[in-house]
Fold:
Amino acid sequence: MEPYIVTKAERAENGMISHTIITKGDDKVLYYHDVRAGLSWPTEAAPGYYCILGEKYSETYRFEGMNRRGELRLLVEREFNGISLNDLFAQLTDDSAMLECRSIYTDIEEPFEGHVEAFWEFVHKKGVKVGSLTPAPYVDNFLLGISWIQDWVKDGLLSVPETSVAYSQLKTISKPDLAESPEEKFPAINALRFVVGAFHKYRPGQTLFTPNRRKAASKSRGALGRR
Structure:
């Protein structure tokens, strides 16, 4: 699925997230169990990069014993080659607010503690809407992250557009690349493994909302009542 333009995003009381998007015809609404981000910090050797993924609504969440997950879709990705962290923070918080993304997974330990402090200083100074900057699971295990990404792809549960930076890096990485600083050679994969790892380890809560069936049932009952 190619990236799309979101005109409106809402989070329901039960956690369901809806995105109203522009299509060739009428506006369309897509539903997600959760929307999360992965952030790879810029370094002297690598650009900054973040991606935002949504787990597509799946009705199997509603039934006991059915563990089929929703498809993870790449909604936004950004790469930053500049020096100013504030430029990165401005775009990240804009995208997060627009997409109802409240969890950003990243490396919060040294040598990035200063980056984390700078992020919160920016947030407080600008008064922007933002969720949490959360430690990514198994942040030091790049190989495990790659393994999770491959598992989700093989199961047909990870959609990454072929035009994306993340797709390009996934196609070119090889085992020898993992020997030395892969997080700097492949920042897009680094951020992607953070957020895929978060979805893998921290499953979104079960959602009892069934948008299409409820609408169909309502119309059916209305039609019967008029007969």
